[in-house]
């Protein structure tokens, strides 16, 4: 289900953080800095496996105009994201 439509949700941007919400919960968020280094990314387990993390990273790339840099992942899921990011970044 990679056709996740962000337009149906509220996107909040503040001080290097994109947060995607609906009326009930936070779907996910990404924290980044001006050099496009992603410090933290989270997707609510209910919304995982839908391409949401990649869409959040694309927002960062568009905002900064730079190639995404991920900090060293601290979880197995983060390592998996890092591997998939290498294919499109």
Write a structural description.
With 89 residues, the chain is α+β, with helices and mostly antiparallel strands. The chain has a single domain (6-88), classed as Aminopeptidase (3-Layer(aba) Sandwich). It is built from two helices and five strands. It has helices spanning 52-64, 76-88, and strands at 10-14, 17-21, 26-32, 37-43, 69-70. The protein has a five-stranded mixed β-sheet, covered by helices on one side. α1 (52-64) links the parallel β4 and β5 (69-70). It is globular. The mean pLDDT is 84.
Helical coverage, percent range: 25-40%
Structural class, by secondary structure, is alpha+beta
CA-based gyration radius: 12 Å
Regions with little confidence, pLDDT below 50 for 5+ residues: none
Q: What is the subunit organization of this protein?
A: single chain
- Briefly, what CATH class? Alpha Beta
CATH architecture: 3-Layer(aba) Sandwich
Largest sheet: number of strands, sense, barrel closure: 5 strands, mixed
Overall mean pLDDT stands at 84
**Shape category:** globular
Number of strand segments: 5
Report the β-strand fraction as a percent range: 25-35%
Q: Count up the domains.
A: 1
Spatial order of the strands forming the largest sheet: 1-2-3-4-5
CATH topology assignment: Aminopeptidase
CATH superfamily annotation:
Gcn5-related N-acetyltransferase (GNAT)
Please report the number of helical segments: 2
Written as H for each helix and E for each strand, in order along the chain, the element string is: EEEEHEH
End-to-end C-alpha gap: 20 Å
């Amino acid at each position: 289900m990679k056709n996740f439509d962000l337009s149906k949700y509220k996107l909040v941007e503040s001080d290097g953080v994109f947060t995607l919400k609906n009326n009930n919960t936070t779907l996910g968020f990404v924290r980044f800095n001006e050099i496009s280094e992603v410090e933290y990314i989270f997707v609510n387990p209910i919304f995982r496996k839908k391409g949401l993390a990649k869409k959040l990273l694309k927002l960062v790339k568009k905002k900064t105009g730079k190639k995404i840099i991920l900090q060293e992942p601290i979880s197995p899921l983060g390592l998996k994201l890092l591997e998939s990011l290498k294919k499109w970044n």
